[in-house]
Amino acid sequence: MDNWDEFLSPYKQAVEELKVKLRGIRKQFTMNDDRSPIEFVTGRVKPVPSILDKMNKKKIRMDRLHCDMQDIAGLRMMCQFVDDIKKVVNIIRKRNDFRIVEEKDYISHKKPSGYRSYHVVIEYPVQTIQGERKILAEIQIRTLAMNFWATIEHSLNYKYNGDFPTEIQMRLQRAAEAAFRLDEEMSLIREEIQEAQKFFTKKKE
Ligand code: 0O2
Ligand code: 0O2
């Protein structure tokens, strides 16, 4: 690739726009004094070394990069409760500023690593001075507990380059189950938690 800056520029624009749009959903809930199913939203453009690494691993050709790598633009939406994920996905499905091209449910079907998240791949139109460019972006929707596990597993992945010692792999799988049990426990006392959150938000006003 001669010019990564040029290639990545619509992806950068898409991430910035989508961060504003998806954070806007949270704002609308809080403005109406409703509890938001979204806790926070982050986004990033995949760094070039990670793109090259993934191209190498998945045998993706440069001329097919725009269609074969779905997460060059990546957004994450964090939720407090597992049930919130469905609500967020439904909100995303109803929008007409992008088109959903794929959904991957790694919550009902966790990955062998223990990874859980709901992925929605979208085709997002970016307005450029040369006209409209449609790019792919991946939205990962997960609970705070799923995010905690994924963040730590991801940093260990860097250390071991994906090749975990058996002991660590087993402990990570157990930790993933513990994170999921935490989500289940929190769901059971959800009403209680939400009542307290409402009470304290009111008190702050
Ligand atoms: P690393 O090492 O890659 O983790 P803001 O100022 O809040 O509007 P900002 O500062 O760009 O925006 O950051 P934001 O939106 O809070 O989130 C950026 C960080 O979130 C990244 O860190 C990623 O770790 C993480 N992140 C967010 N969304 C995704 C995603 O879809 N995929 C992946 N892999 N990571 C995501 P860095 O700085 O890039 O560092
Ligand atoms: P990054 O930016 O470092 O996070 P695959 O062939 O399954 O590896 P594919 O087909 O691109 O990947 O799609 P998938 O699995 O739906 O989504 C890939 C992204 O999901 C990853 O991006 C991670 O962000 C996240 N993910 C998937 N599996 C795991 C896992 O076991 N652990 C963690 N921590 N995250 C996971 P990348 O490419 O790793 O990039």
UniProtKB/TrEMBL annotation:
<comment type="pathway">
    <text>Purine metabolism; ppGpp biosynthesis; ppGpp from GTP: step 1/2.</text>
</comment>
<keyword id="KW-0808">Transferase</keyword>
<keyword id="KW-0342">GTP-binding</keyword>
<dbReference type="Pfam" id="PF04607">
    <property type="entry name" value="RelA_SpoT"/>
</dbReference>
<feature type="domain" description="RelA/SpoT">
    <location>
        <begin position="43"/>
        <end position="164"/>
    </location>
</feature>
<dbReference type="GO" id="GO:0005524">
    <property type="term" value="F:ATP binding"/>
</dbReference>
<dbReference type="GO" id="GO:0016301">
    <property type="term" value="F:kinase activity"/>
</dbReference>
<keyword id="KW-0067">ATP-binding</keyword>
<dbReference type="GO" id="GO:0015970">
    <property type="term" value="P:guanosine tetraphosphate biosynthetic process"/>
</dbReference>
<keyword id="KW-0547">Nucleotide-binding</keyword>
<dbReference type="InterPro" id="IPR043519">
    <property type="entry name" value="NT_sf"/>
</dbReference>
<dbReference type="InterPro" id="IPR052366">
    <property type="entry name" value="GTP_Pyrophosphokinase"/>
</dbReference>
<keyword id="KW-0418">Kinase</keyword>
<dbReference type="InterPro" id="IPR007685">
    <property type="entry name" value="RelA_SpoT"/>
</dbReference>
<dbReference type="GO" id="GO:0008728">
    <property type="term" value="F:GTP diphosphokinase activity"/>
</dbReference>
<comment type="subunit">
    <text>Homotetramer.</text>
</comment>
<dbReference type="GO" id="GO:0005525">
    <property type="term" value="F:GTP binding"/>
</dbReference>
<comment type="similarity">
    <text>Belongs to the RelA/SpoT family.</text>
</comment>
<protein>
    <recommendedName>
        <fullName>GTP diphosphokinase</fullName>
        <ecNumber>2.7.6.5</ecNumber>
    </recommendedName>
</protein>
